[in-house]
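Session log. Operator J.P. requested a structure for one protein chain; no other inputs attached. Running the standard single-chain path with token output.
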Amino acid sequence: MMKKSFSALTPYILYAAAAIAVLFTSCSDNESYAEQKEKERDAINSFLSRDVAIVNREGDTLLHVGHINVITEEQFLRQDSTTDVAKNEYVLFSGKGIYMQIVRKGVGPKLESGQSKRIITRYLEFNILTDSVQTSNDVLYYSTTPDIMEVSNSYGTFTASFNTENGGGAMYRAYNSTEVPAGWLVPLSYIHIGRQTSAEGIAKVRLIIPHSQGQSAARQGVYPCFYEIKYQETR
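Structure written below.
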């Protein structure tokens, strides 16, 4: 079982910057983009089959990823756009290379075409290539300043940016960008975004996102990330 630790939030961001610098340094001029992508594919395939657990410094398990059972989009749709968590199913969106598990669909309405919403996101970001937690805002430090997305739906195409009020959240501070990773928007077609007051009603998904659908540092460094993300409409 793989076990990795993480510390307080500020070290997350410092570590993220250091990890990104190492990744850039390690990509020599002799390593082609095709070779970097092959390394990424190998890392994702290994992640799917490993019994991965993410733990804190004290050794407590924060998230047990486990062995992943991949299903097709066709099976996902036959199952009413759900994934069986008991079987640890993740649907593969082959056109994007994204794997998604819907842990909870949430309550309330979906974000329909022509609508815009502010959505609170709490997340954990795990760098699959380096086998380490990279950033997170699901900690006490960010309890009052989570990452908030300004999201719009135009005929099924979602666009979003991070709100920077009060200094922004962990994603904005770590990557100095209001850009929301494209992979974070994929679940919005399938989950419900309401103003929940209980944890049971908040939509939650898990994602494996290749560099092409990830944040700016992932795209430049050609590395994939695993995310657990909760989505909730602001009050």
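Operator note: Residues 9-26 form the longest helix (18 residues).
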